[in-house]
Write a structure and sequence with these properties.
alpha+beta; TATA-Binding Protein; Endonuclease III, domain 1; Endonuclease Iii, domain 2; 3 domains; six-stranded antiparallel β-sheet; two-stranded antiparallel sheet; 13 helices; 8 strands; DNA-binding
Length: 293
DNA sequence: CTGCAGGGGTAAA
DNA sequence: TTTACCCCTGCA
């Protein structure tokens, strides 16, 4: 891969394992939207950027080399060799081989811990459009104004300090519902430093999970999502309904407990479990595998 | 058109 | 292990 500066942006040349729909529609993020021209615009770390791909070039608009170096390089996980991961997973069995071929351009974004925590608290028993709507409402009301891009206004995700002083009524947006109390509780625990969310990545996976589950509204699934999508813990294996379906379809008897599926995945995929989960999830959801039994 | 089940889990019983 | 949860969407 080669990085070049262009007007109001940069271009990544000769890039591998990087497909925009795979990355932005594999369920890991909620603030990226497809434009009419097929490009994607999104907000992360207080910036709004747009990505467009042509052959083996990815154009990142509305940024500069400095931000690329400090933010986007890490955010798009550009140091990781996905070719190697895909090779290892494909060697496991035919199911993995097929899943990897299907989502060949997936990359795991390294998102902000706090934003990921709140986003996945909102995701519980919720649907993607509703989750996105709730996150946008929080950002528009309590985030900072970033600017106007292509005729739309963009706002950063609100800091915990900003949400700390709010009441349930203040955040009673569509899609938040019963999760409102969890959000306020999380802001309180983080602001009061009862849980140091930005230090959890330095803990062992089991310990970080234990800490995350101290947050109200955070169970095994949400904690694994937060660890994998923001803390670089690839041995986490979040099991949502789609992963449960695809695991039951290919690997374990129907009705296997989540705990047993987790253990099965741990043994089968090891520290690549998170990546395996992501390829399986994308494959299962796009093809609706196991949906109609 | 109206009515109702269920959804990218978790907490509480 | 089972059930309620906000509320929107899909479907009967």
């Amino acid at each position: 891969m080669h990085v070049k500066e262009i007007e109001n942006g940069i271009v990544l040349e000769n890039i591998k394992d990087f497909e925009l729909p795979h990355i932005f529609e594999c369920g890991q993020c909620f603030r990226w939207n497809k434009e009419e021209d097929g490009s994607y615009t999104g907000v992360a770390f207080g910036k709004v950027i747009n990505l467009r791909k042509e052959h083996d070039k990815v154009y990142i608009d509305n940024t500069n080399y400095n931000d690329f170096k400090n933010i986007w390089h890490s955010y798009f996980d550009l140091d990781r060799d996905y070719g190697k991961i895909k090779e290892k997973l494909s060697a496991i069995d035919e199911t993995m081989k097929t899943s990897v071929e299907f989502g060949y351009g997936i990359r795991i974004l390294k998102q902000d811990e706090w934003e990921t925590l709140i986003s996945f608290i909102i995701s519980a028993n919720n649907r993607i459009p509703m989750i996105k709507r709730a996150i946008e409402a929080l950002s528009e009301n309590y985030g900072s104004y970033i600017g106007n891009y292509r005729g739309k206004k963009y706002y950063s995700f609100p800091k915990p300090e900003k949400l700390y002083n709010l009441s349930l009524e203040d955040i009673n947006f569509k899609g938040i519902g019963f999760r409102g109390k969890y959000i306020l509780n999380a802001a309180k625990l983080v602001v009061n430093k009862e849980i140091d969310i930005y230090n959890l990545k330095n803990l062992e996976t089991f310990k970080a999970r234990e800490e995350l589950m101290k947050f109200s509204g955070v169970g095994p699934k949400v904690s694994d999502c937060v660890m994998f999508f923001s803390m670089d813990k690839s041995d986490a294996f979040p099991i949502d309904v789609w992963v449960k379906r695809v695991m039951e379809y290919f690997y374990v008897p129907e009705g296997t407990s989540l705990k047993k599926i987790q253990k099965f995945a741990e043994e089968k995929f090891g520290n690549l479990a998170g990546f395996a989960q992501q390829y399986l999830f994308y494959y299962a959801r796009e093809l609706k595998i196991g949906k109609n039994k």
